[in-house]
Amino acid sequence: MNNLSRRKIYLDYAATTPVDARVIETMMPYFREVFGNPSSIHEFGQQAEAALESAREQVAKVLNCQTDEVIFTGCGSESDNLALRGIAFGARLGRQANHI
Prior knowledge:
Elements lengths: L2 H4 L14 H12 L10 H21 L12 H20 L5
């Protein structure tokens, strides 16, 4: 067998995926230097908040939407729950539904 036939293949992309080198390069300052809590009022937090808002603006521009329509979540479960809550609230407003 040659090396190609022995190469491992990763199939659990639902759990995690490789990070593009451009993303790593862009994020490196935030991993090493600007890592404050963006909800904090100290300088570290304010720098992180500015970076977060800049990213929000960039995403909104690409998606052609308002910045307040861009929501960053911490994980897939949080994203799923936010989507389900949105559906539930929309159903309640639209047809007085109390269940998904």
